[in-house]
Design a protein that fits this description.
Structural class: alpha+beta
Shape: globular
Largest sheet: 12 strands, antiparallel
């Protein structure tokens, strides 16, 4: 199955993109015994810490937009990160569906039907979602844009960079995580670009530094190649709200 058709098949099951990682350690005291000067965290550590905080919250409400070859796919609803569960309202053009996921099981119902149909777990990137939670070792060239932008009414700082998923895989804590990272690389690309929007320093206290929105997109073909400048399907954008909200999802 082509990447574009596979992306359409999973509908809105793409969700919960987050980059988890570690922050810098405590600074060493000065040689003269004076308190150490505080050091601002790097842009890379800031993005990693925001993803880790979201993962630690355990759940969130997500709004997902996938750029597939057959058109945009949108999904929204509550999601729990571990074990993975989601209940999503999905729009594929003019067609609507409900998608429910419980760990390694999934179901969908279309239109106004009351009938739930089981979905093959092979069509759902649950492993890829888990891989995103372990992608921080692959963050590269992270920079913060000057100024602030608005994300759903919250002042946000924009960060951009790329993710080397092979490097993230090399730092995976166990084989299961490595498998999820492999699935993520096959779904998006081995070295996707990313844009992350974090609550700005002057945002409300609950939103400061919080991961508000994350976009992953495949690297475009290099300039001068046959497909340079062509649209690249597979980009996915996820907005997060209500971190830590209770999520109780049952099998239909």
């Amino acid at each position: 199955m082509s990447r574009g058709r596979r992306a359409s098949a999973v509908c809105g099951a793409l969700l919960v993109l987050a980059l988890a990682g570690c922050t810098t350690g405590s600074p060493e005291p000065a040689a003269d015994g004076a308190p150490p000067a505080s050091t601002a965290p790097s842009a890379q550590d800031t993005v990693a810490a925001a993803g880790a905080a979201l993962a630690d919250a355990g759940s969130a409400r997500v709004d997902v937009e996938l750029d597939s070859v057959s058109g945009p796919v949108r999904a929204s609803g509550p999601a729990r990160f571990t074990p993975f569960a989601a209940d999503l309202t999905v729009a594929l053009g003019t067609r609507g569906a409900q998608v429910r996921v419980l760990d390694d099981r999934a179901w969908a119902r279309f239109g106004g039907s009351d009938r739930w149909q089981p979905l093959s777990t092979g069509l759902l990137p649950v492993g890829a979602v888990g891989g995103m939670l372990h992608a921080a070792p692959g963050l590269r060239d992270v920079v913060a844009a000057p100024g602030a932008t608005d994300v759903d009414g919250v002042a946000a700082t924009t960060y951009t960079g790329s993710v080397d998923l092979a490097a993230a895989r090399a730092g995976a804590p166990d084989p299961a995580v490595a498998t999820r990272l492999d699935e993520l690389a096959g779904l998006v690309s081995p070295t996707p670009r990313f844009t992350a929007w974090l609550g700005a320093p002057d945002a409300a206290p609950a939103d400061r530094g919080r991961l508000l929105r994350l976009r992953l997109e495949p690297q475009a073909p290099p300039a001068g190649t046959q497909n340079a400048g062509a649209a690249v399907p597979g980009a996915v954008t996820v907005s997060f709200s209500d971190p830590g909200l209770p999520v109780e999802i049952t099998a239909p």
